[in-house]
Amino acid sequence: MFPEIARDDIFRLETERLWLRWPRTADVEAFCLLAGDPEVATSTARIPHPYEPSDAEAFIRAARAENGSGSGLCLALTLKRQPNEAIGVIGLHGSAPRAPAMLGFWLGRPYWGQGLMSEAVGAFVDLAFGLTSIERIVSSVLPSNAASLRVHEAMGFIHTGRGLFPAPARGGEVEVEMLELRRGAIPTTFASRRPRLKST
Fold it and tell me: Domain N-acetyltransferase, which positions (predicted)?
């Protein structure tokens, strides 16, 4: 799905305030602290709580393998002034040819309410449509996660219904809002802010 430029761990995506880069072993402590926050973990389907170093290590290995194969792209969010300190994660995971790709993200609670996730999602989705041939991105959000729903709606995602989603970290399936974004449907306020790529 993703071309060679994104398959090297020196790849970075730049926004106004953020660097998005490959996750690395040095992120384990930050992931445990931030993703281990129950308010973050329980707003997702896949982050277990408690979140142990072994969970972070397994996630990082899987993300790097997926990035290296090009079957998806998972990046750690960092502030430009602190590029070595991860504050969240965003990822797009591929599936069968011509099927939609699945978007997921989380942000550490100290960084909520600053528009950082909207900034990251806007650049990341624009990148995905620019580098790949995917036509649709889908996402599933817990109905109680109002902040995530606002981010999706601002990006132009439309609601396609409610359904059950596998949530191994929550002990089974959970009911989610299902959303979809089609190529060409990104609001101009986001699409005009072209992200900048760094591969060296």
Answer: 31-183
- Confidence (pLDDT) at 191: 47
Query: Which range among 20-34, 39-53, 131-145, 175-189 shows the weakest confidence by mean pLDDT?
Result: 175-189
Domains: count for the chain: 1
pTM summary value: 0.91
Which residues, including other chains, have CB under 8 Å from residue 103's CB and lie 6 or more apart?
90, 91, 92, 121, 125, 137, 138, 139
CATH number of the domain within which 105 lies: 3.40.630.30
Contacts of 199 (CB under 8 A, 6+ apart): 5, 8, 10, 11, 12
pLDDT at residue 146 is higher than 70: yes
Structural domain of residue 36, as residue ranges?
A: 4-198
Identify any residues that bridge with 176 across adjacent strands, giving them in sequence order: 163
